[in-house]
Structure formats: C-alpha cells, structure tokens
Amino acid sequence: MKILITGGAGFIGSHVVRLFVNKYPDYQIFNLDKLTYAGNLDNLKDIEQKSNYHFIKGDIVDQDFVQELYHKHKFDGTIHLAAESHVDRSILNPLEFVQTNVIGTVNLLNAARDIWKENYTNKLFYHVSTDEVYGSLGNEGLFTESTAYDPHSPYSASKASSDHFVRAYHDTYGLPIVISNCSNNYGAYQFPEKLIPLFIHNIKNSKPLPVYGKGENVRDWLYVVDHARAIDLVYHQGKQGATYNIGGFNEWKNIDLIRLMCQVMDKKLNQTEGTAEKLIEFVKDRAGHDLRYAIDASKINQELGWSPSVTFEQGIELTIDWYLENTQWLDNVTSGNYQTYYETQYVKR
Length: 349
Ligand code: NAD
Ligand code: TDX
Known about the structure:
By secondary structure, the chain is α/β, with parallel strands linked by helices. The chain folds into 2 domains: 2-186 and 220-246, Rossmann fold (3-Layer(aba) Sandwich), CATH 3.40.50; 195-218 and 253-290 and 311-345, UDP-galactose 4-epimerase, domain 1. It is built from 12 helices and 12 strands. It has helices at 11-23, 63-73, 87-92, 94-119, 154-173, 195-204, 224-237, 254-268, 298-304, 312-325, 327-333, 337-345; strands at residues 2-6, 28-33, 53-57, 77-80, 124-130, 177-182, 184-186, 209-212, 218-223, 243-246, 251-253, 280-283. The protein has a 7-stranded parallel sheet, sandwiched between helices. Thymidine-5'-diphospho-beta-D-xylose is lined by residues 85-87, 130, 132, 184, 194-195, 198, 210-212, 217, 219, 254, 286. It is an enzyme of class 4 (lyase).
C-alpha cells in the first residue's frame, strides 16, 4: 500500500505520518510538503530513517508537478492535510489561502481522478478539514455533519471551498472520497502562532498574553494524537463519500482556558501562583471572530468506535511538558521571520 500524505511536515500531518509509519510497516508512506514557515522536518526526526518513509519536497499549487508525481507513483490513497492553516494570516493575505487550499486541492483531485480513471489506483482521496466551515454557533447547539456551511474568515471560506470541490469530484467523476471536519487541535509540534503554543512560549519568556476581545469566544479542543487516531480509523473504515465530524466534546471559553494554562505553567516553572496571569492583556479583537465552535462527534463514535484517549487536563499537561522539554525546537521556529509576523499582530486596546 502506497499512501501520499500531504502537509506531513506540519503540526497535524507530522502526527499522522508518525502514526502510519510506525503502525503500518508494510505501507510505503510518502510525505509531500512545500516546507512553508509551518512545515518543519524536525517534527519527524524520530521516524525519518525508517525504510517505509519517503519525503518529497514540492508545491501542491504546481499542477505539472502534482500530475507527474501521481503518474509516477500510482498511490493507492491520499490523505490531504497540506494547507495554509492560520486564521490571522488569512486576514493578512487571503489569496495565498485560495492558492494553496483551493487550487492546491483541485490540482490533487485532478491527478487523483486521472490515475483512478486510468488504472483504478488512488482508491481513496481523504480530505482533512475543519469545523470552521460551519461558521459560528450561539450559546446553544453543536455542529453536526449536516449543518449548513457558513464560513466567515478567508481561511474557513477557502477550506469550505475545498470541501465542496472534493464532494463535487465524488459526485461528478466518481472519485472515492471521504472528508472529516475536526475541532481545534493542540499538542506537540504546533507552530507558536496558534493560541496554546503561543501562550506557553510567552509565559515561559514573561511576555504579554494577547487575549482577543474579552476572551469570551469558545473553542472545542482535541489532543492532536487523538485526531491522528481518528484519521487512521476514517481512512481504513470510513464510508466512501461520507463526512465525519471529529471533536472531544471539550468546549472552553478562551479566558478560562488561558487561566488554566497560567495555573499549570506557574507550577511547572516554580513561580508564585498568579505570576503568569499578570501577563494577560486584552487586545483588539480578531476581525470576523467566530463566537463559538462545538462539534457533535457522535457519528464517528457510534459508527467507527472512536473516542478521545486523554482528558483535556491530561492533554494540556502533556503539551506544556513537551514545550518545556523541547526548547531547541521552540527557539528554532521562533527566530527569523516569526518575529516580523508577530509584531504585525497585536494592537493594544
Ligand atoms: P500547519 O500549518 O501546521 O501545516 C500545514 C503544512 O502544509 C505545512 O507543513 C506546510 O509546509 C504544508 N504546506 C502548505 N502549503 C503547501 C503547499 N502549497 N504545498 C505543499 N505543502 C504545503 O497545519 P495544521 O494545523 O497541521 O493543519 C493541517 C490540516 O488540518 C489543514 O488542512 C487544516 O485546515 C486542518 N485542520 C487543522 C486544525 C487545527 O486545529 N490546527 C483543526 C482542524 C483541521
Ligand atoms: O493570540 C491569540 N489570542 C487569542 O485570543 C490567538 C493566536 C488566538 N486567540 C483566540 C482566537 C480564537 O478564539 O484563541 C482562539 C484560538 O485561536 P487559534 O489558535 O488561532 O485557532 P482558531 O482560529 O480557532 O483556528 C484553529 O482551529 C481550527 C486552527 O488554526 C485552524 O487551522 C483549525 O481549522
């Protein structure tokens, strides 16, 4: 079995690659990644020498390259995670999100369809997507697989568009597909532009913690290893053409999550209780900031028997420990261009 995993040098992709390479020694795993600012081969140091792992540097936006790649390797399946993934960056540069998330996905779909039609390889195109395509909830309710799409940010609009293309290739050309829409992930190797690793990094360095608006937005958090386990199940047992929502029934108001992180970090850094909380600064809200995301994950639970393996309290502690133990990784990714980006982000109120 030859599987192409796109975006495997990124945060979630590296956990998926690791799981597949270790769990399925008989599979050949091809990791296609452009190595943007978010792609980092250090995320895969522990498996890079394995004989069933292959790295290919390349850009999914390059149509000829993608066609050649599929025709050369005749993959049995694709797990597509490569994307521009950060909402704040999508507000700064929407076109880059259209290029990678929409055009890049359509390039992969074309190549997968072509080899599927020619010789029935690429038996599954698995598209990894987000709960943000469903828009924003009020205080009540959960996103189900049949919730209407209502994206608000350039990022979620580009992911919604790519989801629609994937379904269109199934309905129009008969390409076997499956899609999953997951809630916010956290864990090791997440780039410190996202809330949890950014705040761990800032607390460690006694830097301000920029809370958007009043910190009242709600997100539904899932430990990344559990997302990778769900992707493994959906890839092998998901119904063709189906959608699965993935989430941990684990909603947190941002400010409550931040206070919890501050308490854990005070203990880990042997600081007086309350030290980290003093770093909190309420800053200008994100434009179009969705109020609340919450996933109904009962379908994947009932059909495929998936549920999270760790509680949030366990996951956040594992995550904080990882960042505190892997200072070299954090120092490497927060040098250079990171500083320039970070300075453009936070406007004090
Ligand atoms: P990430 O930003 O950490 O990684 C993205 C990877 O894609 C990087 O390695 C990058 O180099 C690569 N990439 C970007 N553009 C590329 C291109 N043109 N060609 C080839 N490779 C390219 O993202 P992530 O947080 O790991 O998210 C992975 C996927 O999961 C995305 O599709 C995202 O929409 C989805 N998702 C993320 C979350 C989350 O909480 N992070 C939740 C649900 C779904
Ligand atoms: O500095 C910050 N301050 C702050 O208050 C940052 C970076 C974020 N926030 C808020 C915004 C959100 O309400 O925290 C919440 C989480 O923000 P992010 O970590 O940027 O995640 P989010 O925008 O919710 O999107 C994430 O989850 C869904 C991923 O980035 C997406 O790729 C995924 O699809």
